[in-house]
Amino acid sequence: MSVSAVIERGTAASRAAGIGIAAIVVLLAVAPQFLSAGMVDRMTALFIYVILAAMWNALAGFGGLVSVGQQLFFGLGAYFAIRLANAGLNPFVSLFVSAIVVGAVSWPISLFMLRLKNGEFAIGMWVIAALTHLLVNLDRLIQGETGTSLISLNVYDASTRRLTIYWLALASMTALLAILFGLLRGSTGAAIRAIRDNEDAAASVGVRVTGTKRLLFVLAAFGIGVAGALWLATAITFQPKTYFNVQWTAYMIFMVLVGGIGTFEGAILGALLFFLIETWFGGTGVWYLIGLGATALVFSLFLPRGLWGTLEERFGWRLLSVGYRVRLPADEATGGAALPANTTTHREKA
Amino acid sequence: MTHAPDGTILSAAGIQKRFGALVVLDDIDFAMGADEAVGIVGPNGAGKTTLLSVLSGAYPPSAGTIAFKGDDVTALPATQRCRLGLVRTHQVPKPFGGMTAFENVFVAASHGAGLGRDEAYEEALGSLKLCGMLGVANRRAETLGLLDRKRLELARALAARPTLLLLDEIGGGLTDGEAGELVETIRELRHRKISIVWIEHIVHILLQVAERLICMDAGKIIADGEPQAVMADPQVISAYLGGGPK
Fold it and tell me: What is the pLDDT of residue B179?
């Protein structure tokens, strides 16, 4: 019963995309030489948005774990960084140690949260975020909603600080995207998508459902913790209500839905789009938020698969695809019960 | 059990399943040998699918024990039982809708059978081919029709490399021609020494594969033995005709 078929993971386009991405990363790494200080800060924000979108997309789009409480990990990432820096750790090192602590904290949270399903999980996460927000307020160091600052960053002069944070954000984004892509593309990624589509069926074919979900949950917490800590580094000030604000999750959902939920490229595209909208219209106050809401509405009504999902379906574009394509030799495709007409259709889609 | 020859692969003793006050399985004793293909029939609501779910580990029994290949698996969840070789299909197909047919089967090969990448590819392709699904390998499962979903359900279970396969109405809703193909596929599984428990309403299809027939009614086994004898059993006839579907 040996079948002479080829399993394709990438396309010529996706190999080109890999080279293109490497080139973009190199360009971004040298870009501060040519950018104004303000632009460097804006680009740092973009990298953080990409991390947020990619993590929420992995959790919800690939794993089916829709959470509206991811600001929990964003806030904790910033909070633990403040705490660690206050304890005397180098502020830049604190950012990453903080994210590891966030990942460690998310483990016990997953023990009870992953027992919840769908809407219960989504809202439950929000509840945990709100509770944690209140707990953080109780910390004397934070001084309630008055907040505090990552003071120890002040030993670096402004331009060194800006550049270091820029490069840290770029490196974090690149590394996190690479880790995520590797995970989602491997057999664990297939298990993650199987759980999303049917948990019972996944268990019945040998997928470790809870362990796999936990891995994804902890990874997303870690990534969003990195984003929160980096945001703190750019903003310096820490006010709990800013970081534990549900708007962060709303932004993540916006980026992922507009970009294309469940596609790796979609989250990145969505973050870029969100960044542009914010750059151009962010100054218009309330109208900016109305515009964001209207955009989300239009997309969910007319392009429910998002920008990339639609392009992928219509033109068969696959750049960072995690899927598998079977390419059959002509005789296999036409033999047996297979319908050659169908195969052709899929080729076009693929 | 009288019909359990040496080399018992699966044995269940004193199985009860209650949902609240409702007793769905009432003290079921069942054992089968590694070389057997057992058919299960019975009117609607007899508890056939529930028995399969309890055997596969989808949910635990309220009482009783289940042993697979001599080990007590009563406490093991479905994932672990699958990895040991006890795999089921679902009456209503449960495809991974957002994944292609190949990816559906690949998940089972790599996690259920625990195969490395290349072996898992081969196993997945082999299972798809056996079930006549190669032509739709790249289709998202949610776009497949009922017949292909049923085939996919079977292909996916096979890719997990079962030693005992539990089939739940895999032939339901198929035309005679389609059912005939299915019988051929399942006969091929018998050649591969896979033991089979098969629930089916269409008895004449079942009898082309099953060497032993069990009839259930109201949560109990009311007849068990050689197919013709079971079909002629007065209790079985009354369960179908006298009692009518419940």
Answer: 86
pTM: 0.90
C-alpha radius of gyration, chain A, whole number: 22
Closest listed residue to residue A167, CA positions, set A312, A54, A31, A329 = A31
State the pLDDT confidence band at A343, using cuts at 50, 70 and 90: very low
What is the β-pairing status of strands B164-168 and B22-33?
Answer: unpaired
Q: What is the least distance, in Å, from the CA of B181 to any CA of chain A?
A: 10
Which of A3, A196, A323 is facing B103, going by the closest CB pair?
A323
Would you tell me which residues 176-215 of chain B have a C-beta closer than 8 angstroms to some C-beta of chain A? 181
Q: ipTM of this model?
A: 0.90
Residue B191 pLDDT greater than 50, yes or no? yes
> Are residues B134 and A262, on separate chains, in Cβ contact within 8 Å?
no
Nearest to B62 by CA among B28, B113, B98, B96: B28
**Beta-carbon separation of A194 and B107 below 8 A:** yes
| Res A285: pLDDT | 84
Q: CA B198 to CA B5: how far, in whole Å? A: 19
Residues in chain A: 350
Domain boundaries in chain A?
A: 6-349
Quick: pLDDT tens for B48-83.
999 999 999 999 999 999 999 999 999 999 999 999
Closest by Cα among A328, A350, A339, A253 to A3: A328
CA dist., res. B5 & res. B9, Å (int) = 10
How far is the C-alpha of A8 from the C-alpha of A327, rounded, in Å?
Answer: 7
> 3-state DSSP call for residue A248?
helix
Beta bridge partners of B68: B10, B71
The hierarchical CATH code for the domain A6-349 is 1.10.3470
Average pLDDT over residues A301-318: 87
Res. B246: pLDDT tops 60: no
Query: Tokens 């697979």 sit at which residue?
Result: B68
Residues 6+ apart with CB under 8 A from A31: A43
- The per-residue pLDDT for A336 is 44
- Cα–Cα dist B241/B236, whole Å: 8
| Spatial separation of the C-alpha atoms in residues A169 and B217, rounded to whole Å | 65
Q: Which two tokens stand for residue B159?
A: 């890719």
More confident residue, B181 or A111: A111
pLDDT at residue A86, as a whole number: 94
The CA-atom distances, in angstroms, between A129 and each of A95, B157, B173 are 20, 40, 49
Q: Which of A199, A220, A306 lies closest to A260 in space, CA to CA?
A: A306
Query: Residue A238: left if φ>0, alpha if ψ -120 to 50, beta else—which one?
Result: beta
Question: What is the per-residue pLDDT across A101-125, written as a single tens digit (0 to 9) for each?
Answer: 999 999 999 999 999 999 999 999 9
pLDDT per residue over A178-189, tens digit each? 999 999 999 999
CB A175 within 8 A of CB A167: no
Q: How far apart are CA A317 and CA B228, in angstroms?
A: 58
Report yes or no: A274 and A255 within 8 Å, Cβ to Cβ. yes
Regarding predicted confidence, which is higher, B179 or A54? A54
Which residues in chain B touch residue A207, judged by CB atoms under 8 angstroms apart? Answer: 79, 107, 111-112
